[in-house]
Specification:
GO terms for molecular function: ATP binding; UDP-N-acetylmuramate-L-alanyl-gamma-D-glutamyl-meso-2,6-diaminoheptanedioate ligase activity. By secondary structure, the chain is an alpha/beta fold. It is built from 15 helices and 23 strands. Strand 12, helix 6 and strand 13 form a beta-alpha-beta unit. The protein is globular, with a radius of gyration of 22 Å. The chain starts with a strand and ends with a helix.
Length: about 450
């Protein structure tokens, strides 16, 4: 079959393209911005790419068009698909019909930590010899690729609550019909499509409704927003996770190091083993518990899961060390929400103790660009000794509202100004974290070059 994918360079749609290619289909695709690393990855898979949207991209005529959720009516290629009467579907529906149906689906949902927890879970299954399929919105370093069909009955899918397509406004995850489901956490996000938290909770409850009675929900003990979702109705066993011994949670993490790099795993009062790994932060301990609990439901003993996670190499762009220059460590992090910013910086602070931490933040997600988190962004930067915010020309709101909250927060209106500030500011022993869900104008490479020249 010849499949053409609109919006192919997004992480989700790019993963689908890889899976479709692995299934033996001829795959092509188009996107508004075709650039590395996704373009390189797809071309290596034998997938032809078109830069920009045009009716010409639909020749030769494909058997099926998969339309990404970023595209809407008025797009010239979408209009051509409709006018030509071509068969089309959403990415989420194609994924269920051709990859997930008939297999044991393990889904990871939540506002934060989906990519990392999905990667942990896939790695536990791999380490135990199951060769799972997976579709993850990032690149797990243990695998070096974001998607594969797999050989066994298990498939791990990062379950996003964003809408499905212009013709299907349900959240993508309602299509997946998982047997094992992790609900990591729930906060207000995606303000471009959800008017309030209650609207997101309703979609999460649609997901809960689809999990069978012989399945499992893994939920943090102390998340009131998720507790409200479950109070809407739950027909599936629930196992809860929490940090510390002062809790009734089924799965507990007992920290042995302040930075979260070593901790005991306890299941219903019995110690299962100790994880000693390169990750840090309270959030990653909770992510690990969720992955272990989900794997246990799939038949993997906690001791085996703990052994796997002790060899877990994290995910690209999750506090990833990009360079070390003159004793200065540069990191790349995908943080897109104040809570994610805070937990990442808290974990790094605990790891580096008294060393200086500098956070460089691009408010780039749709919700951040709308200014929804303007009142909480300053507090999320508290663990940093200095925070530099990028006032992009098209941001739409003034970051002075944030910088006025603390003399440790400054704004810059260009990438060049950020690089120059870092060149003057940084000294040996500093830890600089670039935080954005985009490429951030190449600021990582430009800063590294400037520091090497100094």
């Amino acid at each position: 079959m010849r499949i053409h994918i609109l919006g192919i360079c997004g992480t989700f749609m790019g993963g689908l393209a890889i899976m479709a290619r692995q299934l033996g289909h001829t795959v092509t695709g188009s996107d508004q911005n075709v650039y590395p690393p996704m373009s390189t990855l797809l071309e290596q898979q034998g997938i032809d790419l078109c830069n920009g949207y045009s009716p010409d991209n639909l020749h030769p005529v494909p058997d099926l068009v998969i339309i990404g959720n970023a595209l809407s009516r008025g797009n010239p290629e979408v209009e051509a698909v409709l006018n030509m009467g071509l068969a089309y579907t959403s990415g989420a529906q194609w994924l269920y019909n051709h990859v997930l149906k008939g297999r044991w689906v393990l889904a990871v949902a939540g506002t934060h930590g989906k990519t990392t927890t999905s990667s942990m879970l896939a790695w536990i299954l791999e380490h135990d010899g199951h060769k799972p399929g997976f579709l993850i919105g990032g690149v797990p370093l243990n695998f070096g690729i974001s998607a594969r069909i797999g050989e066994g009955r298990f498939v791990v899918v990062e379950a996003d609550e964003y809408d499905t397509a212009f013709f299907d406004k349900r959240s993508k995850f309602v299509h997946y019909r998982p047997r094992t489901t992790i609900l990591n956490n729930l906060e207000y996000d995606h303000a471009d499509i959800f008017p309030d938290l209650a609207a997101i909770q309703r979609q999460f409850h649609h997901l809960v409704r689809s999990v069978p009675g012989n399945g499992l929900l893994v939920v943090p003990e102390r998340d009131e927003n998720l507790a409200e979702v479950l109070r809407m109705g739950c027909w599936t066993p629930v196992e809860k996770t929490a940090l510390g011994p002062d809790t009734a949670a089924d799965w507990q993490a007992h920290p042995l190091a302040e930075d979260g790099s070593r901790f005991d795993v306890v299941f219903r009062g019995k110690r299962q083993g100790t994880i000693h790994w390169q990750l840090s932060g309270r959030h990653n301990m909770l992510n690990a518990l969720s992955a272990i609990a989900a794997a246990h439901h799939a038949g993997i003993e906690p001791a085996a899961a703990i052994s796997a996670l002790s060899r877990f190499q994290s995910v690209k762009r999750r506090l990833e060390v990009r360079a070390e220059v003159r004793g200065i460590t540069l990191y790349d992090d995908f943080a897109h929400h104040p809570t994610a910013i805070a937990t990442t910086l808290e974990g790094l602070r605990a790891r580096v103790d008294g060393a200086r931490v500098i956070a460089v933040v691009e408010p780039r997600s749709n919700t951040m660009r709308m200014g929804v988190h303007a009142d909480t962004l300053a507090a999320s930067l508290a663990p940093a000794d200095l925070a530099i915010l990028y006032q992009a020309p098209d941001l739409g709101w003034d970051l002075a509202k944030v910088s006025s909250a603390s003399d440790r927060i400054v704004t810059c209106d260009s990438i060049g100004a950020i690089v120059e500030r870092l060149r003057q500011e940084c000294r040996a022993g500093d830890h600089v974290v670039f935080m954005s869900n985009g490429s951030f104008g190449g600021v990582h490479e430009k800063t590294e070059a400037a520091l090497r020249e100094t």
